[in-house]
Amino acid sequence: MSDLCASGLTCIKRDRVLFDDFSLNLNAGELVYLRGPNGAGKTSLLRILTGLSSPEYGDVTFDGVNISSNPSLYYQNLIYLGHKSALNGALSAIDNLRFWLAQHGIQNQDVTQASDIGCTIYQVLERLGLVGLEDVPVRFLSAGQQRRVALSRLWLKSATVWVLDEPFTALDSAGVILLERKMKQHVADGGMIITTSHQALSSEAGPHRCVDLEYRF
Ligand SMILES: Nc1ncnc2c1ncn2[C@@H]1O[C@H](COP(=O)(O)OP(=O)(O)OP(=O)(O)O)[C@@H](O)[C@H]1O
Mind listing the pLDDT tens digit for each residue in 69-108? Predict the structure, then answer.
């Protein structure tokens, strides 16, 4: 059984201690909903959990191995979606996702034939309600449509750990349900998710554990 374990984390930004001696265990088949006011340190915590930034103290392990000692192994098992969509506005949805797949070294049937990549990504974009917009530079898509392109990554890469920073931003109510159901399915399949959101998760997301970060002065 996989687990992501953060222990004794301390994070300081501009002389403010956002959190100290913070510990969290995320187990396979678990959804953690990280809550807290603006500026509490949720994004800072998620970035530490992904290895994108380092805590002043403490460490993070995945399956008992410190994530900094074998980052490539961890990254194979991780999808991190930050609160920005991380799309190149000049590229289409298809090309953004192709680039992302290549960047993640995904070597499955998708990349053995160029036509298969397009086919698979087209199918995902169709599920995300983006039919007819696949080839449009994403800067011409609405905020919610851009978010849907970004979220398509969850359908394209198989990874145990999902770290999601405000993934519901700009989504309409149908998009929120689509994502919540996807999250519920991932957890039912033995995945693990930690997500932030300023809106409460609905029952569509399935059972979840709330973790609160207080704002510290
Ligand atoms: N690289 C940085 N340099 C300096 N200060 C930073 C940096 N990153 C974050 N901070 C500060 O740390 C605090 C926490 O930021 P963070 O983005 O983690 O909060 P958050 O809980 O995700 O907030 P929100 O709900 O608004 O997204 C903020 O006061 C922010 O200004």
Answer: 989 989 999 999 998 999 999 999 999 999 999 888 885 4
12 CA from centroid of ligand 1 (Å) = 10
Tell me the CATH number at 131: 3.40.50.300
Buried b (16+ CB within 10 A) or exposed e, 58-95: bbbbbeeeebeeeeeebbebbbbbbeebebeeeebbbb
Which atom, in ligand 1's list, is nearest to the CA of 213?
A: 21
41 lines ligand 1 (CB under 6 A): yes
Say what the pLDDT of residue 108 is: 45
Tokens of 3: 């687990």
Residue 217 falls within a domain, yes or no? no
Whether 82 is in the pocket of ligand 1, judged by its Cβ within 6 Å, is: no
Parent domain of 157: 3-212
Q: Examine residue 180 and state whether it is found in any structural domain, yes or no.
A: yes
Ligand 1 centroid to Cα of residue 165, in Å, is: 12
Q: How far is CA 7 from CA 55, 58, 59, in A?
A: 10, 6, 6
Compute the average pLDDT of residues 105-120.
Answer: 54
CB atoms closer than 10 angstroms to residue 135: 9
Mutate to test the pocket of ligand 1, among 43, 46, 164, 197 (most ligand atoms within 8 A of CB): 43
**Residue 40: CB within 6 Å of ligand 1?**
yes
Domain contains 164:
yes
Tokens representing 172 are 């309409």
Q: ipTM of the predicted structure? A: 0.97
